[in-house]
Amino acid sequence: MRKVALLTMALSAATLYACNNTPQEKAEKAMEQTEEKAMDAATDAEKASDKAANIDMEKTVYSNMAAANAAVAKIAMPALSNDKAKELASDLGKSIVDRINAKTNDDIVEAEKDIIEDRTDVEKAFLEKKISAQDKDHILKYGDDCLAAARGAV
Questions:
Q1: Letter string b/e over residues 21-56, b meaning 16 or more CB atoms within 10 A of that residue's CB
Q2: Tens digits of per-residue pLDDT, 70-103?
Q3: Hey, how many other C-beta atoms are within 10 angstroms of the C-beta on 61?
Q4: What span is annotated as the signal peptide, if there is one (predicted)?
Q5: Which residue, among 122, 112, 72, 74, has the nearest Cα to 93 in the 3D structure?
Q6: How many angstroms separate the CA atoms of 99 and 150, rounded?
Q7: What confidence score (pLDDT) does residue 74 get?
Q8: Is the pTM of this model over 0.70?
Q9: Which of 52, 91, 131, 144 has the fewest CB atoms found within 10 Å of its own CB?
Q10: Are 149 and 74 contacting, i.e. CB atoms less than 8 angstroms apart?
Q11: What is d(CA 33, CA 24) in angstroms, rounded to the nearest whole number?
């Protein structure tokens, strides 16, 4: 009798367990898992695509920087009459190159300010008679030519 009761209980438990895991429920769970895997794969693919796009963007930015630097390097420094004029032209050229190579908005703003300041220094040196009118014109034209070359290269 005891064996029959235990056997009956075991069969009842097995039947109850089997009823809770019907083929339909198993299929639904498998489908949910498949959907989750598909969503994960889609997310991974999107991340990979974004990474590739960022790499392409970086390549473009650095390529443009290199082209602008090369274009500016081709602009000859003007013949100037004194060391002060040469120093002012050099400072302006360096500020333009810094602007080309700026990577952050703060760097861009700072470089733009430096270019304006350098151009102001040229005007100031002329007014103080440290450089000639011809030197002033040559330096400012040199700056304009460098900026035009950099813009044209991009």
A1: eeeeeeeeeeeeeeeeeeeeeeeeeeeeeeeeeeee
A2: 999 999 999 999 999 999 999 999 999 999 999 8
A3: 12
A4: 1-18
A5: 72
A6: 10
A7: 94
A8: no
A9: 52
A10: yes
A11: 14
